[in-house]
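Researcher: Here's a chain I'd like modeled. Treat it as a single chain, no partners, no ligands.
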Amino acid sequence: VAAQDTFGFEGSVDFISVKNRTIAVPGRVSGLQGEARAEKLDGGGVALDGAVEIPLASLTTDLAIRDQRIQNTFFGMSEGNSARFLFKEMKTPAEGSRVMWIDGALEIGPFSQDLRAHLLVKEERPGQWVVESGEPMVVKISKLGMSGRLAALVELCAHESIDDSVEVRLAGVISIPETFQ
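Model: Modeled as a single isolated chain. Structure tokens:
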């Protein structure tokens, strides 16, 4: 695959976690960057090989002690864990459509969950799409295999609970290779 067949991505992720059954805790991870080599598939899909790095150190919930606890106790940054989204396939917007899908896997340290991003697309200028989540992705902590880390975070913070599901929304810019314009 030639270099001109590489998509680029930069953006941020907003999430909402719920603690104590009713308290929504919004957060953001900014500075996401990555790229993926692309190959057109029969049927209109695009196979992707690449990843977006998710800089967990940029996580903010507007409370520094909470950020530190999430980063170290839940994400395991103190153990050297990192996060990324591995691209698998995407369906580019059909002519006149603003909707696309990207399939991949969220990896946090040794944990992984397959996800599908439903994105609304606006062509900002030739070779560049501005994207934002149409529907949120739902990350299930139990499906990721991180229930033990979630329990440790609940205990450390003395919460009644933290929900197993986290709503995640993506916003960013995708750079489109000439061969796909």
